[in-house]
Structures are given as C-alpha cells and as structure tokens.
Design brief:
This protein is α/β, with parallel strands linked by helices. It has 2 domains: 68 residues, no CATH class; 304 residues, TIM Barrel. The chain contains 15 helices and 14 strands. The strands form 5 sheets. It has a 4-stranded parallel sheet. A 3-stranded parallel sheet has the order 13-5-14, covered by helices on one side. A 3-stranded parallel sheet has the order 6-7-8, covered by helices on one side. Helix 9 runs parallel beside helix 10. The protein starts with a strand and ends in a 21-residue tail after the last strand. 47% of the residues are buried. Bound molecules: iron/sulfur cluster. The site of iron/sulfur cluster has 12 residues, from loops.
Length: 409
C-alpha cells in the first residue's frame, strides 16, 4: 500500500496513494477543523487556486519534501516557462546607519550621536556608483536607518543628484518602514511621500522591513518600525502609483508557523488588490534570520534553527501559496550556495543579486559571496541556464566591459 501510486491525468504527475488518504487536521485546542488530503491540495495548487492558511500549514507539515518540491517546481515551470534562472548585479548602499527603530536582529544601526554614525555623501555615492558600473551593475539598492532628522527633502535631493550624474542607474530604494518614517516626520501621507520620491528618481520600492507581517512578532523584534497594516497599505499605495515592488519574509526567529502563513496570505491579498495594469509585487524573497551577535540571540536566546529542509519547504510553499506572484527568489546570501541551488528545483526561479556590497544582513553573520562569474557557475552547476536581468525582471546582456569584483571581505 505504501508504494502504491496513481497518475493524475490532468497534471501528469504521480501521486503516492498514501497521500490521497484523508487526514484530520488539528489546529486550535485540539479541535478538528476539517479533513484534508494531500492529493486534493496538490490539485488545488496546480490549478493556481488560493490555499487557505490551514491547507498551507497542512501541506507544509504533512507533505513529503520531494512531493512539495515537485509540485512547486511544476508551478514554476508554468509561471516562468523559459526555464532560465535569472540573477542581477546591483549594490546595496546605505544612506545612513543612524536609526531609532532599534530592531533586535540588527547589528548595522548606530544611535544618533554615536561615534560611528554616518550619512553617505555625494563623493562616496559617486565612487560607489562608478565601481558598480565597472562591475556590470545597473542599480543601487539604496536603504538606511530611520534617521530622526532626515526627511523627504533629504531623500528627494539625494535621488535627484544621483540621477542627474548617473541617469542610467536605477534606484531600488527605501522600503515601507522608511516611507512610513518619512511620512511621520513630514506629517504627510504615504501617497504624497511616494509621489515625491518617484518624481525624484525612485524606480522601485523594495519589500524591506516586512520581517513577519503580524504585530505580535513586530512588537517583539522591531517595535520601532511600522506595523503590519501600514507596511501593506504603503505597498498597495505604491501599486496604485505603478511603482514596482517586491515582498520579503524574514523567518526563523520568534514567529509561529501559523504567523508565517498569515504573512503569506496578507502579501497575496495585497497583490490581488493591485490595479490590473500594475506589476505589483514582482518577486517574493523569503530569507532566514541571521543571529550572530544580535540582541535577539544575546538577550533572548533566540537563534536561527532553520534547517535546509525547512528552508526548502518554505520556498516550495511560497510558490504554492502565492500563485499571483511570478518570481520566487532563493536567498543564497543567508542559506548558502548548495541549499539555494536545491531551492531552484523546488519553486525558486531567481538567484537574486550578487550584491556588490551588503552591510545589513552580513553584519549578523551571512557569510556568502558571489561574483558575476561564480553566480553563473553556481546556476549552471544546479542544472539551469543563467540569465542576467534588471529589477523589472527584463533580461540584460552582460556588459562587454565588465570587471570581476575582488571579494576580499
Ligand atoms: S533593520 Fe533597519 S530599521 Fe531596523 S534597526 Fe536596523 S537599520 Fe534600523
């Protein structure tokens, strides 16, 4: 019986017979909510139906990893039929490390007045952008702390000056928590702030600072950042203004499994409400909490215990739970090359950026690095053809004059 199987005629994949046996699911107070079976859920997923929180959790907990990855891989093939694995060259540059949000997982920020506090000046941007172009990049991922004195004018002036000097450089910049912070400083609205930033040169809005979009979690790890609803509202506003965005999830800390699924469903709902002609969330990027020397680890003893299997399950379930988001990115920076390569066989279709510079996640222990040559080698090693892209997921040619960055840190 255990080895018996049948062929799903519609989707042409083999389902072990064991998975069609109904199973009861207990989620709250050991109360039976309803019964489910894996085969029915696989079929719903393959039909691009929205799975409920309970159904997603059931799959995550009960499905054999190989089956979960198989279904996610089939969905990836439908969503991204070209079969290539895309990647990007950009540079994370920080506007300032001054921050009053006090996130307990962040080793990057400094409080106002700290001896190591800085605000990046134009000569530094100039040098970093010139290097970025030499190394083949076309974009800055420009983010920083919640500086208590830097308002809209500062960011608008910075973006304008960069665009004036480097009109071809794209600015993937800030994130909903920074937009919320600027809005508060200016006593303005999200819409007004986003319109002004877009006019000044913002090309797209990263899905930064999402962590887990549940306020219980946010109060524990990032109390000074905007709440879950404000994060979602800002993204919806950006979609209405046709600003492309991405969404992220940082997991493996104080959240429950159920809260991860709440997060996925909230992201999916915002994407469902985007105007029909807006691109909305172009990608979803789940990544694991990096714990080295963080307050969460030192004071509260919270460590990232995510195993490679759990990460692969999250990638696969992200593909399954988010049928309205086309690109799922593997986070090689946090899980390393091999696990990220496996994720490409279980729902992920994108390897993200080589990140010519990254200071925030690396400060909490993410040790991995790629150059433009080694990322392509890693994608090929995983069995895929690499394809350079831009932030809009449009393909780019690798520049003819490109220098390989020397990774010495
Ligand atoms: S993660 Fe961002 S908002 Fe939080 S403390 Fe660090 S710099 Fe500030």
């Amino acid at each position: 019986m255990a080895n018996a199987s049948f062929l799903c005629m519609k989707h042409r994949f083999v389902v072990p017979l064991a998975t069609i046996v109904p199973r009861k699911v207990f989620i709250k107070d050991r109360k039976i909510i309803y019964t489910m079976n894996l085969a029915t859920l696989y079929k719903k997923a393959m039909d691009f139906e929205f799975l409920s929180l309970e159904e997603g959790m059931f799959l995550f907990q009960q499905a054999p990893l190989t089956e979960l990855m198989y279904v996610a891989n089939e969905l990836r093939k439908k969503q991204v039929p070209h079969g290539k694995v895309t990647w990007q060259i950009d540079r994370n540059v920080n506007t300032t490390n001054v921050c009053i949000a006090n996130c307990k997982f962040c080793n990057f920020y400094r409080i106002p007045g700290h001896a190591e506090a800085y605000i990046t000046d134009m000569p530094t941007y100039r040098k970093k952008i010139e290097e970025t172009i030499r190394w083949g990049g076309d974009q800055l991922l420009l983010q920083g702390g919640h500086h208590p004195e830097l308002g809209l004018q500062f960011y608008a002036d910075t973006f304008r000056q960069i665009k004036k000097e480097f009109p071809n450089i794209k600015l993937h910049t800030l994130g909903p928590p920074e937009v919320a912070h600027i809005t508060k400083l200016e006593k303005s609205t999200h819409k007004e702030v986003l319109v002004a930033l877009k006019e000044a040169g913002m090309d797209s809005l990263p899905g930064a600072g999402a962590e887990i979009l549940v306020d219980r979690v946010r109060r524990l790890i990032s109390k000074g950042k905007c709440g879950a609803q404000e994060w979602l509202d800002i993204m919806h506003e950006a979609h209405k203004l046709n600003i492309t965005t991405s969404a992220t999830m940082m997991f493996g800390h104080v959240e429950t499994l159920e809260e991860r699924f709440e997060h996925l469903i909230k992201i999916r709902e915002v994407q469902s409400r985007k105007p029909a002609d807006a691109k909305g969330f172009l990608a979803f990027i789940p990544w694991t909490f990096q714990d080295v020397d963080t307050l969460l680890a030192r004071i509260r003893g919270v460590h990232n215990l995510t195993t490679p299997e759990e990460y692969l399950r999250m990638i696969a379930i992200s593909r399954i739970m988010l049928p309205n988001i086309k690109n799922i990115q593997a986070s090689w920076l946090t899980v390393g090359k091999q696990t990220a390569q496996l994720a490409l066989h279980g729902g992920a279709n994108d390897f993200g950026s080589i990140m010519l510079e990254e200071n925030v996640v690396s400060a909490a222990g993410a040790p991995h690095r790629f150059t433009y040559k080694s990322i392509q080698a890693a994608i090929r090693e995983a069995g895929f053809e690499p394809q350079l892209r831009n932030q809009q997921y449009e393909w780019r040619e690798i520049p003819q004059l490109i220098e390989e960055q020397v990774v010495d840190y």
